[in-house]
Amino acid sequence: MTNSDPPLLNHYVAPSSHSTRCDEPQTRLVIEECRLPSIDLSGLSSRDGTVRRACVSTICRASSEWGFFQVLNHGISPRLIEKMRSEQVKLFTTPFERKASSGLLNNSYRWGNPRATCPKQFSWSEAFHVPLTKVSDEACYGEFISLREVMTEFAAEMSKLARLLGGVLTENLGYGKEVISKLCDENTCFLRLNHYPACLISPGILGLVAHTDSDFLTILCQDQVGGLQVMKDSKWVSVKPNQDALIVNIGDLFQAWSNGVYKSVEHKVVTNAKMERYSIAYFLCPSYDSVIGSFEQPSMYRKFTFGEYRDQVQEDVRKTGYKVGLPRFLVNGTVHQ
User: Fold this and answer.
1) Domains assigned to the chain
2) 241: preceding bond cis by omega (within 30 degrees)
3) What global pTM score does this model have?
4) How far apart are CA 136 and CA 131, in angstroms?
5) What does the pLDDT look like over 236-245, one tens digit per residue?
6) Bridge partners (DSSP) listed for residue 250
C-alpha cells in the first residue's frame, strides 16, 4: 500500500481480532463470470416505432428479470469517460491525510467501515460521495481545478442518461415519462467516486459489502479490472467488464414503486490481490419528502417518503451493521433479526 491509501488494514484487524460471529445472510456460491443483458440505446431515438418499442421492452424486461443491465451507445463520449477516469486517479493518489482532512468535494471522503463488528461487514475501499449541487462548486476542489470542469460535464451527462432511462421505466408503468424528472432533486442525487486498493491479505475480503441501492436507479462507469458481483437466481454472478458499456441497476425505490415488477438486486464488490479498481456511480434519487407508493393495488409495500426510508436504512446500519431495506416496509411482512 502507498501513502495515498487509507489505513484499511488497521481497521480491518480490529473486528477480525475479537469477532467470532457475524449475523449476515449465508454466503452463496459464485458461479462463472458472465455478461449482463446488453442494450443498444440508439433504439430509443429511432424513427422506427417498432425499433423503439423493442428497445423499451428490452430495458423493462432486463429490469424485471435481472435488475441489472449494460447499455451501449449511451451518449457519453469515451473521451469524457477517459478524462474523468484520469482525474479520478489523480484525486485518489493524493496523500491520505489530505483526502481525509482538507474538505475536498464537500468534505465527502469516506473509507472502510468504522461500524463493522466482524470482517464480513468491512469494505476495503475509499470514496468521495458528492451531491450534484456541489459538483460545480469551485470551493470544493482546492488545487484540483481540472477535476471540476470534467466532473461537472460528466455529472450532467450521467444525469441526462439516468432521467432518460427513468422515464422509460416510469412510462412502462403507466406514468408520464416526465414524472421521474419532477420527483428527482439535485440535492439528493449524487456521484460516488470509488477506489478499491489492492488487498493482499485475504481473497474473502469485500471491497464493498453486499447491499441494494436506496435510489430509483444507479449508473456505473467502471474500469476493466472487474470485481462486481450480482445476485441472480440465489447465486453470485461475477460481471464481466465491457469497456464500451455502462452498467445500470434498479434501486429499492423503483422496486417499491413498481410493486415488485422491477427488481432491486443485491450486489457487492470483491477485492483483487494485485490490481486496484476504480469506478464512478451516479445515483438517481427523489427529494426527501417524495412519497413512494405502488402504481397498483394491492401493494406489497406501505407508502413511505424517501427521507423516512433513508433514516430507517441508516438506523438499521447503526444497530446491526447491515442494511435491511425494503423488507421493513412490507405491508404483510415480518423482518427477522
Assistant:
1) 8-17+24-329 (2.60.120.330)
2) no
3) 0.94
4) 10
5) 999 999 989 9
6) 217
